[in-house]
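pasting input
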Amino acid sequence: MINLKQLAKHLNLSQATVSRALNNYSTVNSATKARVIEAANALGYRANTSARQLATGKTGAFGIVLPAADNLLMDPHFVDFLAGLTSALAVNDLDLVLSASDGIATYRRLATTRKVDALVLSAPKLDDPRIRELLAMNFPFIVHGRTDRKPDYAYFDIDNYKAFKDATRLLMDLGHQEIALLNGTQDSVFAIDRYRGYCDVFGQRGLVVNPELVFADAMTEENGYRIISQLIDANKLPTAILCSSALLTLGANRRFRDAGIVVGRDVSIVSHDDGLSSLKTENFSVPLTVTRSPIRIAGQEIGKMLIEQSRGASISELQKVVQAELVVRASTGAAPRKK
Amino acid sequence: MINLKQLAKHLNLSQATVSRALNNYSTVNSATKARVIEAANALGYRANTSARQLATGKTGAFGIVLPAADNLLMDPHFVDFLAGLTSALAVNDLDLVLSASDGIATYRRLATTRKVDALVLSAPKLDDPRIRELLAMNFPFIVHGRTDRKPDYAYFDIDNYKAFKDATRLLMDLGHQEIALLNGTQDSVFAIDRYRGYCDVFGQRGLVVNPELVFADAMTEENGYRIISQLIDANKLPTAILCSSALLTLGANRRFRDAGIVVGRDVSIVSHDDGLSSLKTENFSVPLTVTRSPIRIAGQEIGKMLIEQSRGASISELQKVVQAELVVRASTGAAPRKK
DNA sequence: TTATGTTATGAAAGCGCTTTATGTTTTGTA
DNA sequence: TACAAAACATAAAGCGCTTTCATAACATAA
C-alpha cells in the first residue's frame, strides 16, 4: 500500500507534481505525466479516498436510504432501481452509499456528516419533510417522483397522469364502463396523478367514477388478491381493472384463477409495469397489457443527473419527465355483453 | 456547518478535549463531557466523515458489489439481502457502499482505495478469483456462501447439503422415486451441495439418479417454465420435482397450470425458499412445501459479523452455517400410482 | 541587454479530525 | 509538609491528499 509521498520520492518529483500528473493537469509536462502514470500503475498506487475527500470536499459517493428496511414489506422495485443507478455511476467510478432508514434522522446524518455529495429520494409523499429539510439545509438531492406538478427542486418522474389516462381510454374504447382502479395509497403523488388521469377520462366521456371501484392501499400481491376477492364476494366485479403495480396484478390474477375467471375474456386488465426483471408481464399466464416504464431506466437517468448536478448543472436542467409506453397484449379485450 | 475547532473555541476548550469528550474517553471530566455534548447538540455539530476517516483509518462503511448490474438478469434476492444487511449495520450508524460490478477490478478498487473497511462477497464460484485476490491483499471480507466445506476465511452459509437431503427424503417417504432436480448452475457451490444432498439420498436407498432429470441452469422463472415444458413434451415428467429457487418453481407452476396438471396431486413440488418478501411461497396457488432460509436473515447475520470482524474477531468466530427449515405444505403429496 | 511571458516544478499550507507527548492541577499518602 | 499518583487539559504532530503561491528555467520581444 504505497502513498503519494513514497511515489513522489520514488520518482524524484514533488508530491505536487505527481498529484497534478495523476489528475491530468495541463501544466505538467506530458513526458513527466506519462512517467508518473506508468510508475503509479507499476507500483499499484491508488489515492486514499478519505484523504482525497478531505482535501477536495467531494466524497465521490451519493446516498440513498433503504425504505423501511426492517419492515417486512420490502419493495422488489428497489433492486432494479439500484441496478440502474449504480450502473450509471460506475462509469465514473462513483459509488452509492446505502443506509437503512431511521426516519428523517438518517437523511440528516448523511447530509451533515458529509458522507455523500448528494442524496436521492424515492417515493416522495405530499409535502415531504425530507425534501423540506434538505432544501433548508441547502443540501443537493434528486427526487424520484415529485410532490407537485412543477416543483422547485431536481427530480425525475414519469407522466403518471398521462399513462393512466391512456390506459383508461384504451379500456373505454374497448367498451368497458365499469373499471376498477387498484391504486397505491393516496399520500403518494404518483397515485394521485394516476387517479386524476383515470377520473378525467370518465369526466371527458360524461361518465361518473364509481367510488366503490377505487382502491388505495399498499401495492402488494396480497392486496391484489384481497381486493378482487372482495369484489367477487360482493358480486361487484367490473368488466375491467386497472392496476398500479404488476404485484397487485399478480395477486388479482391469482384470485381470478381461483374463481375460474379468464383474464382477457371475462375481465380485462391493464397494469402499470415498472419493467422488473424478476416479474415479466409478458410472461403472465395471459400476457399483460401495460403502461410500461422500466424503473431501471429511471435509476440510470437519475444516476446521470447526479453526475450533472455535481458538475454544476442548474435546477432547470435537472427536472425530467418521461412518458410511459402503452403496450397492448392479451389481457385486454372487448367488454363482455351484460348478462 | 460548524467544525471541531469552532466548537472548541466556543467552549473555551482545546480541540483535543472536545474530541475526547465526544468520543467518550474515560480521561475527561464527566461535567466537561456533558457540557461538550450539550453544546455539540445545540450547535448541530457533526464530525466530518472524511476527516475522521483519515485520522482513524476506519471508514465506517462496508462494501458490496452489485452482481452484473447491467445484465438484465437482476436477482430479486438481492434486495432482501440488502435489507437485512443494512438494518444490522444501521444499529451502529454504519453504511453500505454499493458498486456496480466491473468484474474483479471493482473489488480491487474498493479495497485499495480504502473506501470501505471490509467487503461482502455474494454467490462465490468454485475457486473464486475474488476470494483469492482479497486473501492475497489481506483485505477483510465475509462471504455469503463458501467455496468448500471448511474454508479458511470468514463466511456465512446455509447447510445446502442437509436441506436438499431432507427434501429428497421427504419426497421418497411419500413414495416418489422419479424426482427431477431443477438446480442452479454447477459452478456455484450451493448448487453442488444441493446436488450432492439429492444424490446421497438416492444412494442411501439403493436407487440411482436419472441424469435426464437433473437440470443445472440459471434459476429464473423462464427456465422453470422451459424445463417443465421440455419434460412434458418428451413425456418424461416425473412424479416429483425439487427446485432450487422459488422463481424456478413459479415458472414450473405456470407450465403445470397451462397443462392442467394439479400440483400436490398429479405432481409434488419441494422448493427452496429464500423467504423473499415479494414472493411468498405460502401464497402460491397451492401453498408450497419448502426448505426455508430467509435471505434477509443471512444479510442481518453478515451485518453483525462485519461489526464483530472490525472489532477484531478471529476467523474462527466468523464462520457460521445455519440450517434451513423444512416446511411441509400442500404442494407435496403421495406419489400417484403408475398408470 | 533588459523586460515580459511561458512553462514546469517545488515548498508548504491547509482540509478537520484523532491521538501522542507534555504540562498542570488536584488528590492521596507517608 | 513533601511527594507520588491520579485526573484533567493542552499543544502539536500526524493522517494523505489537493492546491495556492512562489520560483526557476527558458524563450520571446523590445
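fyi DSSP finds twelve helices and twelve strands in chain B.
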